[in-house]
Design goal:
- With 536 residues, the chain is of the alpha+beta class.
- The protein contains 18 helices and 13 strands.
- It has helices spanning 7-27, 32-42, 54-65, 70-89, 101-110, 113-117, 125-144, 148-162, 168-178, 186-208, 212-220, 229-240, 246-254, 260-279, 294-303, 307-332, 345-356, 367-377; strands at residues 361-364, 381-384, 408-411, 424-427, 437-442, 445-450, 456-458, 464-471, 474-480, 487-489, 493-498, 511-517, 529-531.
- The protein has a four-stranded mixed beta sheet with strand order 2-1-3-4, covered by helices on one side.
């Protein structure tokens, strides 16, 4: 049995929330991350370096119904409203209470900060949240009815979840751990197989790209923890659950689950918190990574809500409301010293455009600025990523090959500051080469892969091979590795090269790899690394 909902109060809230989010979406300039994901939607694929493809599909669907900024955000607004409705349906049936349960629901939802962000900003967390709600909806159906159709729909949602963000695997895992009886039912395996089948095009894309995303998320970005990250995580958790709701959180913590569904909610809520708390020991944890915990938190809280919590919520709401209004104002108007990765970007893009004229623009280590420039000017831009910077989707796209043999404007060659004059330069006869990958076969042998539709030449006057040494994932040293003779690698082929590295010192380094450089550029991204044995 599902909780009933008054159509009058529901549609009034929908009307208010929809107007708020539509106004915010229309008024607030695009966020740099959104511009990056918008570029995804312009180049649809089975996967992207940072994320699975669902966010690109989300934006593409929005663009069918609107243009401009609403063409990025419209589906986000609609699906969050649908998520609210579905979450309410997951509550225990309405009991006789001395307070209006529906108003309590809307009050709690309105006071949770991430709902205001993902009420209009489009990131992979938006489809993750929507399909997360559907995942719990069909899981409840599986528990109550257990029909084959319920399991099949549940499996489809698993696949769509995994298409949204890799964190979906944690949600599926925590639910399975919370209810071992599921492993005794053959329908569970069929649902899992169906989910994997739906996810398989993305897995094949990962295979074709040497598992770049998994390597990045599981290895390359890890082991960068600072002493303050656990404290930062606690502060962020307090913020996203709302500091005024600490008592509510403690209430949820003290209660015990009443059935298999609630046990799954508890495992999800505290499983995510515990998992990402441990992650702070190896990496920075972003606050929005806990967005899925909103679903079990709201349900568990309202299933045990009492009159004293309602009285507190009424008082807290009027304190929280002006804070949230102020937050919406700051997201609408450029009033703060920091630009929030939202404001002043159009002016910067137009300034660069005016400076460059018809020249293509290549940004150094700034995939978000390259995406921002494309959004505001409608022209392709590229991010050239160096060996000391993280890789991103521009390490896969070859759109910058259209710049070949042209004069290009380079943004970011100088010191990174806000003065355009300190960063600008031009380079004649551009050549795209930064997607060249170099695999280490052995201590004396490498394989150079040319992914381009044209040959590449390695020599002192053209491309040069560089040995890059790392320590704790920071560059320790870069040395040119001269080749015995000029090397020409035909298009779309790989060539094996024998090297003598005995004259190079690996002292203090813990890993090494190879990059490519063409003067005056810096060494390009290192795609493959080898660990250096201790004592070598």
């Amino acid at each position: 049995m599902k909780a009933t909902i008054s159509s009058f109060s529901f549609w009034w809230f929908v009307f208010f929330w929809g107007i708020l989010c539509l106004a915010q979406a229309w008024w607030t300039p695009i966020h740099l991350d959104e511009a990056y994901y918008w570029c995804y939607s312009q180049e649809l694929d089975w996967g992207y370096f940072d994320h699975p493809p669902m966010v690109a599909i989300w934006i593409k669907i929005s663009s069918f119904f609107s243009s401009g900024i609403l063409g990025v955000r419209l589906l986000t607004i609609l699906t969050l409203i649908a998520s609210f409705y579905l979450i309410y349906q997951l509550l225990e049936p309405q009991k006789e209470t001395s307070f209006p349960k529906q108003l309590a629901f809307w009050g709690i939802v309105f006071c949770l900060p991430l709902f205001h962000i993902y009420g209009f900003i489009t990131t992979p967390d938006v489809p993750l949240l929507f399909f997360g709600v559907l995942f719990f909806t069909f899981y409840k159906q599986v528990l109550e009815d257990g029909k084959w159709s319920d399991f099949l729909l549940w499996g489809i949602i698993m696949g769509l979840l995994l298409w949204s963000k890799y964190h979906a695997a944690l949600l599926i895992l925590f639910i399975l751990i919370s209810n071992p009886k599921l492993f005794l039912r053959p329908q569970t395996y069929v649902a899992g197989a169906l989910g994997l089948l739906i996810w398989s095009p993305h897995l094949y894309w990962q295979y074709e790209h040497d598992w770049m995303s998994f390597n990045y998320h599981l290895s390359e970005r890890a082991h960068n923890s600072k002493w303050f990250h656990p404290l930062e995580f606690i502060g962020n958790a307090l913020l996203i659950f709302n500091p005024f709701f600490i008592g509510f959180f403690i209430q949820v913590l003290k209660k015990r689950w009443q059935n298999d569904f609630e046990r799954g909610l508890y495992f999800t809520l505290f499983g995510f918190i515990f998992f990402f708390a441990l992650q702070t020991l190896r990496d920075h944890v972003q606050p929005q990574w806990l967005v899925l915990t909103y679903i079990p938190f709201v349900i568990l809280l309202l299933n045990n809500f009492e009159i004293r919590q309602w009285n507190y919520l009424k008082k807290a709401f009027w304190v929280i409301l002006p804070i949230l209004i102020l937050a919406h104002v700051f997201l609408s108007v450029d009033l703060l010293p920091k630009d929030l990765d939202i404001f002043r970007k159009e002016a910067l893009a137009q300034k660069i455009k005016k400076e460059t004229g018809e020249k293509p623009v290549v940004f150094i280590n700034s995939y978000r600025k390259a995406a921002m420039y494309r959004w505001y000017t409608g022209e392709y831009a590229h991010s050239y990523n160096t060996a000391d910077n993280r890789k991103n989707q521009f390490n896969i796209w070859q759109t910058d090959t259209i710049f070949n043999k042209k004069e290009v404007f380079i943004y970011g060659m100088g010191k990174a500051n806000n003065a355009l004059d300190n960063k600008k330069t031009t380079i004649q006869n551009y050549l795209s080469y930064d997607k060249v990958k170099i695999k280490i076969i052995s201590s004396t042998q490498i394989e150079i892969e040319n992914p381009y539709a044209y040959p590449l030449t390695f020599s002192d006057e053209n491309l040069q091979l560089y040995l890059v040494l790392f320590k704790a994932k920071k560059i320790l040293k870069q040395d040119a590795v001269p080749l015995k003779e000029q090397l020409v690698i035909p298009s779309n082929t790989s060539t094996t090269v024998h090297l003598d590295l005995s004259t190079y010192s690996f002292e203090n380094a813990d890993s090494y790899g190879f990059g490519v450089k063409k003067t005056p550029w810096k060494v390009s991204s290192v795609y493959y690394k080898n660990t250096i044995p201790l004592g070598q």
